C-alpha cells in the first residue's frame, strides 16, 4: 500500500472525476500565446526572406549555360541557340582544377562565342564531333582527336570520357522518361492496390487482430528458436574443430569472426535470453497483451466510423510539399543573388606579351580585345559579386531558411497529430456509439486546434527543431573532421550523436502524447506534456506492451502491403505474368526496375500514411482508456466509456440505471 502511495506521489495523483467532462472540451481558450506570436513573426520574416531572394536572385544562372560575355544560351535573344560551345575543350579536360560546378554553373575559361572568336582570329585549329550534355557541347568519347604537342591522345580521350561520364545524362534521362511514359498507368494501378490493401488491413483488424498478433508472436518465437538451433550447430562444429578467437586475434574483417566458436556462443546466449524474455512476457503479461489487442480492435472500429481521417495525411503531405518547395526556391534564389563579374584570363601567362597583363582583375567583356600582344587574352565570366547587404548576409539568410524549414515542417506534423487526436478522442468519449459521435469530428478538431492551439504546436515544434538543428550541426562537424579524427575523438563524437538521437526520439514521444492531451483538455503545452508523461509513467507496463504489440502489427502490415505490391510489380514489369490477355500486356521498358522501385516507394508512402493514422488512433484511445480507468468506477454516476471487450478483460461492468434496459 505504501509503495503504491509513493508511486502516486512521484508520478502525480490519478485524474479526478469531473461530472461535466464529456470528451474534448469545447469551451477553451488560446494557449501559449507568446509562442504563437513568435511563430507568426518568424513566418513573416521567412516570407520577407523569400521576397528578398526573389528580388535579388536569378535561378537562370544555374538552369542555363552562359557564354564568355555572360549571355544566357537557350533563352531571350539566344532562344534558338540552346547549346554552349567550348572552342578549346582541352583546357577543360586537361586543367580540371579550373572546372567549378557551383552557383556559377560549369565554368571553363575558353572562348565561347563563334563570331567574336573569328573576329579575334581565335578560330580552333580542329573540329570534333560533339554531343550536348547539360546544355553544353562535348566531343564524343570515341572521336579521333588530333595530335597536340606535349599532350598524348590517351590523356585527351580519357579526359573527354570522364567529362561525359560525369555530365552527360541525356540518354539515361530520355530512357527514364520513356519508361515512365509507358508505365505510369500501371504505377498508378499499383499505388491503388497499395491503398486498398492498407485500408482493408486496418478495417479487418477488428476481426483478426487477436489471432494475427498471436500468430506474429509465435512466428517471432519460431525465428528465435531456429536462430538458437543454428547457433548451437555452428558452435558445436567450430568447437570440435578447435577454432577459437585466440587463434584469429583482432581484425577489421568482421566476416572472419563467423568462423570462431565464441561468436556463435555469444549469439546463442543472446537469442536464448530474448526467447526466455518473450516467453515470460506471454506468461505474466498475457492480460495486458489482451488489453492491447482489444485497443487495436477498438481503433479499427474508430477508423471505420471516421473514414475521413484516413485521407487526412494527403492534406499533411500537401502542406509538407509547400514547405519544402518554398524553402528550396528561396535557397535557390538566395544562392544566385549578385551581379556577374568578369576578369582577364589567358591560357598561358608565361608567353611573351602577357607579363604585364593584370590577370584576374575586373574587365568588361564588350571591350575586347584589350591587349592584343598577349595571345589568347580574354575577358571571361568568373562569378557573382558578394558585395551588398543581401550578399553579405547570404549565409545568415540561408541559416534562417533552414530553421524555417525545420520549424514549419514540425509544426505541420504537430497539427496533423493534434487534429487526429481530437477526432479519435471524440469517438472514445461518446458513451453511445455511434449516436453520440459528433457529426464532423475531423473538421471540428481541425478548426479547434488551429484557433486555440497554434502556439502550443509551435512550442513543441520549436523544441524538436532545436534538437534536429543540433544533430545537423554535429553531422556537419563529423563529416568535416572525419579524416583527421583519432579513435578517441570518433568515440566521443559517436556518443554525442547517439545522445542527440535518443533525445530527439524522446521529445517526439513526449510531443505526440502532449498533443493528445491538448486536443482533449485544451491546456498549454507544458501542462499537457507533464500530465501525459505522468499518466504514462503510472501505467508504464501497459505502455511498453501496447507499444511493442502495435509496432509488431504495423510492421507486419507495412511488410504485407509493400512486399505484395513489390512482388506484383516485379512479376508484371518483367513480363513473367502470362495469360492476362491482349489488352493487358507488360510494357516494353529500358529499365524494368524503375517503375518497380517507384511502385514500391509509393506503396511505402501510402502504407506509412495510413498506418500513421492508425497508430495515432491507438495512442489516443490508450490515453483515453487510462483516463477512463482513473476517472470512473462503473457506477451509475461514473460509468466507464470503454468498450465491452475491455470491460470484460478487466473484469469490470457498468451499473445500469433502474428502468434503463440499455447496456454499455
UniProtKB/TrEMBL annotation:
<feature type="transmembrane region" description="Helical">
    <location>
        <begin position="405"/>
        <end position="431"/>
    </location>
</feature>
<feature type="transmembrane region" description="Helical">
    <location>
        <begin position="212"/>
        <end position="229"/>
    </location>
</feature>
<keyword id="KW-0050">Antiport</keyword>
<feature type="transmembrane region" description="Helical">
    <location>
        <begin position="593"/>
        <end position="626"/>
    </location>
</feature>
<protein>
    <recommendedName>
        <fullName>Choline transporter-like protein</fullName>
    </recommendedName>
</protein>
<comment type="similarity">
    <text>Belongs to the CTL (choline transporter-like) family.</text>
</comment>
<keyword id="KW-0812">Transmembrane</keyword>
<dbReference type="InterPro" id="IPR007603">
    <property type="entry name" value="Choline_transptr-like"/>
</dbReference>
<keyword id="KW-1133">Transmembrane helix</keyword>
<dbReference type="GO" id="GO:0016324">
    <property type="term" value="C:apical plasma membrane"/>
</dbReference>
<feature type="transmembrane region" description="Helical">
    <location>
        <begin position="33"/>
        <end position="56"/>
    </location>
</feature>
<dbReference type="GO" id="GO:0015871">
    <property type="term" value="P:choline transport"/>
</dbReference>
<dbReference type="GO" id="GO:0090422">
    <property type="term" value="F:thiamine pyrophosphate transmembrane transporter activity"/>
</dbReference>
<keyword id="KW-0472">Membrane</keyword>
<keyword id="KW-0813">Transport</keyword>
<feature type="transmembrane region" description="Helical">
    <location>
        <begin position="311"/>
        <end position="335"/>
    </location>
</feature>
<keyword id="KW-1003">Cell membrane</keyword>
<keyword id="KW-0325">Glycoprotein</keyword>
<feature type="transmembrane region" description="Helical">
    <location>
        <begin position="452"/>
        <end position="474"/>
    </location>
</feature>
<feature type="transmembrane region" description="Helical">
    <location>
        <begin position="184"/>
        <end position="205"/>
    </location>
</feature>
<dbReference type="Pfam" id="PF04515">
    <property type="entry name" value="Choline_transpo"/>
</dbReference>
<feature type="transmembrane region" description="Helical">
    <location>
        <begin position="264"/>
        <end position="285"/>
    </location>
</feature>
<feature type="transmembrane region" description="Helical">
    <location>
        <begin position="549"/>
        <end position="573"/>
    </location>
</feature>
<dbReference type="GO" id="GO:0015297">
    <property type="term" value="F:antiporter activity"/>
</dbReference>
<feature type="transmembrane region" description="Helical">
    <location>
        <begin position="514"/>
        <end position="537"/>
    </location>
</feature>
<comment type="function">
    <text>Choline transporter that plays a role in the choline-acetylcholine system and is required to the efferent innervation of hair cells in the olivocochlear bundle for the maintenance of physiological function of outer hair cells and the protection of hair cells from acoustic injury. Also described as a thiamine pyrophosphate transporter in colon, may mediate the absorption of microbiota-generated thiamine pyrophosphate and contribute to host thiamine (vitamin B1) homeostasis.</text>
</comment>
